[in-house]
């Protein structure tokens, strides 16, 4: 992969840094986009890493904001945090905001980062947190699983909660989870698998998955996500977001703008989750349903969604 022409999505770690937290842990993060722009904390998916922030960096798009993308515990450069809660990550975000001397900021959570964005909405200081954006984010377990495909339904009902070892093993055998292979080998295998599956894929996903630049970025992101092992990042993360969040969405302050973007054809974090979150938030929620899938919503709508977030700040 290193011999390929320059990628539209950054694959490097030049913008990465760490900060030491009060409890002795290390928190990894990377900064992308317009570094003099409005600050937006990016909370990655399940699995994921701080490298996801490259979606909002040049030359992927024209940068609109200062994207501060954080590794959750056990991912990338961040230390594991045994027995953590979803609300604990909001404390990490708060500490990093103080470390960076930010007067105000927003939070953007994608997919598995959605629960953590809600936690930030519930816990971060009202004078600092100005707006929240959730793109295809998972909601709390009580919303249900209507619209999920069978694979995600099993994983988010019984898989992570009762069979975490099986989840770890299954994912470690998928191409993107095969860290015994080089990045080039995983890229080649993924391309071969996609060529066989392409005819059955949703048309919205074809353009994205046909893009070799995006595939190289995904391969790199997954390696960073799992460099400490699936047992310390991915598996605990999955269990956390499928159990009680530790707070009620309805108690989030009513003056905080929260924008929710969901895909009509999303079978991972379906439309029903956006509707369920919006119903619990009340009038401060801004729900949009786009004609997209889980993946295509991010690739196709990230600029418009970010523009809405910045306007709300």
TrEMBL record:
The lineage of its organism: Eukaryota, Fungi, Dikarya, Ascomycota, Pezizomycotina. Residues 40-142 form the AB hydrolase-1 domain. This is AB hydrolase-1 domain-containing protein. InterPro entries: AB_hydrolase_1 (IPR000073), AB_hydrolase_fold (IPR029058). PANTHER family: AB HYDROLASE-1 DOMAIN-CONTAINING PROTEIN, HYDROLASE, ALPHA/BETA FOLD FAMILY PROTEIN, EXPRESSED-RELATED. Transmembrane segments: none annotated. Pfam families: Abhydrolase_1. It comes from the Eukaryota.
